[in-house]
Amino acid sequence: MISDTDCVKHATAAPAVAGEKTSASSDKDHRAPPAAPNIVMSSKDHDSLFSGGGISFLSGSRNGRINYGYSSFKGKRSSMEDFFETKISEVDGQMVAFFGVFDGHGGSRTAEYLKNNLFKNLSNHPGFIKDTKTAIFEAFKQTDVDYLNEEKGHQRDAGSTASTAVLLGDRILVANVGDSRVVASRAGLAVPLSVDHKPDRSDERQRIEQAGGFIIWAGTWRVGGVLAVSRAFGDKLLKPYVVADPEIQEEEIEGVDFIIIASDGLWNVISNKEAVSLVQTITDAEVASRELIKEAYTRGSSDNITCVVVRFDPS
């Protein structure tokens, strides 16, 4: 669950950000998909939409501004299991931006843990600046181990996907675990920066079977007949078949118009190309994130929907 406290945290935890903002309106009747659910998340209204955003500046050779926005909506689900994080921090003298979407299953515990700990663990890694890919891989795996150790004794087996983007110098480093997704726009063309971890992906199926696991069809392909994603944090009962090893893709910021990071509540009903086209002309990243969620809800998404948009504005 995302609360008003989280809104305050986003507005105060990143001193390098200028222009942090949130927006508010209300709409509590979701019996039929509204044309524009212009609503704001609060701790008392679980059906509402929470959004905000801010601006910061790149520190690489391509100096310019980033304009980011986020929106999160419970939608038609009975509970909210999505979390997200936006962080702008100085690490070893360099400015770093971190954006992540965490889609929980079996409860919200794992997603909330990732929001609170994943970037902290990554930024504290001794090799974060010099060997960022290795640091990301090791921090993801260690975070999973730490979470499972903390969860010992809890009967409920919860898990979460994670799609993250780190902006460091002139680079975007995308790390993905599960079926949330990161998509970039280059000159209006949709460029996938992650590939969904689904059990029926041939390499994922082979990995699972080599580890002694299996996948079967139960409405969709599922690991052990249970989980519809093949990689996730948590899910201790499905280890070692369901792992938190991230797939990492590096991209030059030069030429990227914007990136979209979203949970599968968006991607289940909107293609990469459609998402890029929908927000191509929207210069305010928060407005873009809200429009994506509105469109996904209007198209009948039955899941929680969370979206972060980061737009690169050259100086």
UniProtKB/TrEMBL annotation:
Fetch the CDD domains from UniProt.
Answer: PP2Cc
**Residue ranges constituting the PPM-type phosphatase domain according to the UniProt record:** 67-312
Q: Where is this region: Disordered?
A: 16-37
Q: Which domain of life is it from?
A: Eukaryota
Keyword Iron assigned: no
Q: Required cofactors, per record?
A: Mg(2+); Mn(2+)
Q: Which UniProt keywords apply?
A: Hydrolase, Magnesium, Manganese, Metal-binding, Protein phosphatase
The reply on keyword Metal-binding is: yes
Q: What PROSITE patterns does the record tag this protein with?
A: PPM_1 (PS01032), PPM_2 (PS51746)
Enzyme Commission number: 3.1.3.16
- Reactions listed under catalytic activity: O-phospho-L-threonyl-[protein] + H2O = L-threonyl-[protein] + phosphate; O-phospho-L-seryl-[protein] + H2O = L-seryl-[protein] + phosphate
Q: If you read the UniProt record, what top EC class would you report for this enzyme, in one word?
A: hydrolase
List the Gene Ontology MF annotations in alphabetical order. Answer: metal ion binding; protein serine/threonine phosphatase activity
Q: Which family does it belong to?
A: Belongs to the PP2C family.
Protein name listed in UniProt: protein-serine/threonine phosphatase
Organism name:
Cicer arietinum (Chickpea)
Q: What is the lineage of its organism?
A: Eukaryota, Viridiplantae, Streptophyta, Embryophyta, Tracheophyta
